[in-house]
Amino acid sequence: MSDRSQNQRDVLRSHLSFFDLVRVGGSGLKTRKLRSALSATGIMIGIAALVGVLGLSSSGSADLIKELDALGTNLLRVEAGGGFRNSPTSLPADAVFMIERITPVYEVATVSSIPGAVYRNDLISDGRTQGISIKATDLNLLATQRGSLQAGVYLDDVLAQFPAVVLGSVAAQRLEISELLTPKQIWLGNNWFRVVGILNPLPLAADLDRAALIGYGIAEDLFDYDGIAEVIYVRADPNHILDVREVMAATVNPEFPEEVQVSRTSDVLEARAATRNTFTNLFVGLGAVALLVGAIGIANVMVIAVIERRNEIGLRRALGATRFHVGAQFLIEALVLSGIGGLAGIVLGLIITAVYATFREWSILIPEYAVFGGMLGSLVIGGIAGLYPALRAANMSPTEALRTS
Amino acid sequence: MTHEKSNIRYAVELRQVDKIYPGTPPVAALSDVSFSVVHGEFVGIVGASGSGKSTLLHVIGTLTQPTNGDVFIDSINTNGLSDRALSGLRAKSVGFVFQEFFLLPGFSAVQNVANGLLYSGVSSAEREERAKAMLDRVGLAHRMEHRPNEMSGGEQQRVAIARALVHDPAFVLADEPSGNLDSQNTSAVMDLFTKLNQDGTTIILITHDLEVAQISTRQVTLKDGRIEGHPDMLSGVVHE
């Protein structure tokens, strides 16, 4: 063919600019709007599920991680329990003293249960305790728990000696005390106590939310408290928290270390985060299934389009379209379909995330990879789904395509 | 390989073309067909159904390659050309007019005509401009923005003819162009062909209808895959 003239070489070339190719590919959808919209819906749902789930789990985890960071993962809870002796176990009297000797420990707080019940006043019949317990505690507790007050003040040196009580958040709700603008008194262990403070929820010690906290001084005076701590909260250097945990039982009770239970309170929150991850994976899986179904839908619609538009394929071949032009036209059509579905899915996913996160008062956080991955994923899916129909269109013989039924 | 037997430039030349469809037994749709069309001619190819008309149309239109023999389009031998080269040849040298019009629904008359230039490397603006001029030439200036379903059969066929002409092809290949039209529209379309031919367009009209073929300046008959008639009738050169 080397002897062909320049003129002939020019004649023997079919042209279609990329822009025209995209326009031709998009134009096929114009005349079948409803069908196109329906087939893009599958991709939209899949992408929306993926973006929504990833967005929600990021937003949720972000808050959980923030919460974990704020509360710290270096709080240990030490209490008596277990062991091989039959008698009820308790921590040794010098437990706190021993714990404070562990170098990385920098905060220790103790809590002890006081027998008795709490009522709004002395007229309420016995037994209607509403599940509120009395706990004697020291002045470190609030700081150790990284807790905060809804109202009032926490116990101090003076208040600890007097009938003053700080209520946990749930306890305050059950006693129907929400503010301390006017003096409030409650009937606690057959004595009137003045409510001096209300705590915000303590995520690391949910049992204290249902407690009425009093000082050790008044506990000794009124309730014959024996000075033995029931639960000890320990804050230690986060870098050595595992070491501290390791030696804790033997340090507290060298004689019967098996009678000491040590737990890390933040484990609960971490378990919650892990659970949420499991759900995320489940929903990502469901989203992937929806995408697969969407891809099959697009492939199906495109195969039908190739059959229906046989004459158009024949015409385009007669007008000078190459096999490549015809194949590319149908491939681009599939890509446009899935692209529209993907775009709509991303928008829908973002809306779902924003609405739900706002509803749950989470900070909205949408990972970039969810958006870009969603778009890229839908295009890849469209490409795969459109490949077979495109090849079928490209390989259709023009004479066959021009035949009328 | 340029065809330069003489000074005559053929729009189409077929040399001993066979087209055999494989099968048991193989079917010879075209046997030893040789004939040519000179630029400016209006040739009618007449044949009953089953005579090989469609195959001849496809071979002349380079939509299929002959089993044996050579097909020259505008003096270019199509033998052994790639898909891309054949497509380019169709885009520039062949204008098809079909019985069923094959206009794209959802596109205006101008867009349909402009599609005739889509694969020839002409800019979008120029395509539209030339499409408008061509629609004007076939008398549809008032139908530019109408869609196929808003036009009569005769108008649709005129749009299709405009599409076949818009890229200024070496010849127009019309396959039963009046097959779907009533008598009134048939004569309008045939008048248009006559007028276009008088203005210099080469037209090859394939039909089963002898009466329709009468408007052409030269007729050849196809029967059982063979061209019939005096050898002088098979070349426009001798005829003239």
- Unreliable residue runs of chain A: none
Report the portion of residues of chain B in β strands.
25-35%
> What is the CA-CA span between the terminal residues of chain A?
39 Å
Outline of chain B, from the CA principal axes? globular
Mean pLDDT of chain B: 90
Instruction: Assign the CATH architecture of the domain at 41-62 and 92-231 in chain B.
Output: 3-Layer(aba) Sandwich
Rounded to an integer in angstroms, the radius of gyration calculated over CA atoms of chain B is 18 Å
List SSEs of chain B in N-to-C order: EEEHEEHEHHHEHEHEEH
Sketch the major β-sheet of chain A.
11 strands, mixed
The helix count of chain B comes to 8
Helix percent band of chain B: 25-40%
Describe this structure in words.
The complex is a heterodimer of chains A (405) and B (240). Chain A is of the alpha+beta class and 405 residues long. Chain A has 13 helices and 11 strands. Chain A has 2 domains: 17-67 and 271-402, no CATH class; 90-255, no CATH class. Chain A has helices spanning 6-11, 18-30, 33-71, 95-99, 141-144, 169-174, 216-223, 241-252, 266-308, 310-319, 323-359, 368-395, 398-402, and strands at 75-80, 105-114, 118-119, 133-137, 149-152, 164-167, 185-188, 191-199, 211-215, 231-236, 260-264. In chain A, a hairpin with a 2-residue loop joins strand 7 (185-188) and strand 8. Chain B is of the alpha/beta class and 240 residues long. In chain B, strand 1 (10-21) and strand 2 form a beta hairpin. Classes of the chains: A alpha+beta (405), B alpha/beta (240).
